[in-house]
Design goal:
Elements (H helix, E strand, L loop, with lengths): L4 H4 L10 H11 L5 E3 L10 H12 L12 H15 L8 E4 L1 H13 L5 E6 L5 H6 L4 E6 L10 H6 L4 E7 L11 H14 L2 E5 L24 E6 L12 E4 L2 H13 L6 H12 L2 H23 L5 E2 L7 E5 L7 H12 L1 E5 L10 E5 L4 H24 L1
Parallel strand pairs: 1-11, 3-4, 3-5, 5-6, 6-7
Antiparallel strand pairs: 2-8, 7-8, 9-10, 10-12, 11-12
Helix pairs in contact: 3-10, 4-10, 5-9, 11-13
């Protein structure tokens, strides 16, 4: 029997970019000790107070069908949070609760792309972006940002690629680069969206992890509220990756149709998870700060380690839980370097090529192991890169 082109072409007929990660996990299953600096998974678990709220809600009976759009109190909380952070009027009817940020991305592209439409996204990108766009039978079209620009996208290049496009997906703070888009960058993007009549899908799941500068939601820019869909999640802000609780915020008409989509797909998020999410969001900034603190601390540790060498270059690490390192001085691709590092030292990082062409010659390092282990692994990585560069120079 023939399967649909849509499902068989999700990865574009090639790798999904996670080959090094999969090899590292196979080594772990075989009993090899591997330092995994690959996945954006916190090394701390969900706070016990959140788990207590989840348990209490489940035991109180929130184990049946929940409200498909999301429980009213959680939708109100998300709306108030967005309004407080952006100054943009936001109410319950602007919010759909989804099973995590990934489901929100899929829903947003369902709302903005018909089959055959072009969905734009910025390269480097989170690995699921092109497959998410292909999953709605749209054409996934990357627009390369440039290392020499600190991976800030150029509005002119977005404009030049926009023929046939109906949507543009951006992510700030950015995974994989750690870059926070500047106001100038976002105003340029907004200008293209207005000129080209594009929907802007803004993935803001790392908005609580900003180390330099400030996060600006493009929904707050002039004339953008009616053409922007914001994707958010509790996964990164509250170490709730496995709970699968996120949201889409957008115009009431779009959200109404997305509620209809949810009725025919996910049919809501478990009530006890939503109760825990509502508790987490109402706990106050101390909890978000506690979750973010290890990454802020490890970023500072990384800067100290990297200042002691001259082979690897750090892309501005302004936010999120990752470092993007330029390893081109070794003469190796990101993929070749990642495999060699894994084989030689059992340290797993993600090749830049996993995130698109623009990140070739880079690696992404997740700051997701304890401080001592992270520092030791990064020093080993730097020494390894130095040895390779020295050998190359001697040839």
């Amino acid at each position: 029997m023939k399967l649909s082109h849509r499902i068989t072409n999700l990865t574009g007929g090639g790798s999904d970019g996670w080959d090094v990660f999969n090899k590292a996990r196979a080594m772990v299953r075989a009993g090899v000790a591997v330092t995994e600096l690959t996945q954006g998974e916190h090394d701390i678990r969900t706070h016990p107070a959140i788990l207590d709220a989840m348990d209490a809600a489940a035991r109180a009976g929130k184990t049946g069908y929940s409200s498909v759009p999301g429980e009213p109190d959680l939708r109100d909380t998300v709306a108030a949070r967005i309004q407080d952070r952006t100054g943009v009027p936001t109410g319950r009817d602007n919010v759909l609760i989804t099973p995590g940020g990934q489901a929100a991305l899929f829903a947003a592209h369902n709302a903005t792309c018909d089959p055959g439409d072009v969905g734009l996204f910025i390269d480097p990108y989170y690995a699921t972006y092109p497959g998410t766009i292909r999953g709605v039978a749209a054409i996934a079209k990357p627009i390369q940002a440039h290392a020499e620009d600190g991976f800030q996208p150029r509005a002119a290049e977005i404009d030049a690629a926009a023929d046939g496009a109906t949507s543009l997906l951006i992510n700030t703070p950015n995974n994989p680069t750690g870059v926070v888009y500047s106001r100038d960058t976002l105003e340029g993007i907004a200008g293209v969206c207005r000129k080209r009549d594009l929907w802007l899908i803004s993935d803001e799941v790392y908005d609580t992890q900003v180390w330099e500068g400030a996060h600006l939601s493009p929904r707050a820019l002039p004339d953008m509220i009616e053409r922007t869909l914001v994707v958010g999640s509790l996964s990164k802000s509250h170490a709730m990756t496995g709970s699968r609780c996120g949201w889409v915020v957008g115009p009431e008409e779009a959200i109404a149709h997305l509620i209809n989509l949810a009725t025919h797909t996910t049919y809501g998020v478990p009530g006890f998870v939503q109760a825990a999410g509502n508790f987490a969001l109402n706990a106050g900034p101390w909890l978000e700060d506690e979750v973010a603190a290890p990454f802020r601390r490890r970023r500072a540790l990384a800067q100290e380690v990297l200042q002691a060498q001259n082979v690897l270059r750090l892309v501005p690490a302004q936010g999120a839980m990752y470092l993007m390192l330029d390893i081109r001085a070794t003469g190796m691709s990101g993929e070749a370097f990642a495999y060699a590092l894994l084989d030689a030292h059992h340290i797993a990082v993600m090749p830049g090529e996993s995130f698109g062409k623009a990140a070739a010659g880079h690696i992404r390092v997740a700051m997701t192991v304890d401080d001592a282990g992270f520092t030791a692994a990064l020093k080993t990585l730097c020494d390894f890169a130095g040895q390779i560069a020295n050998t190359r120079a001697a040839e």
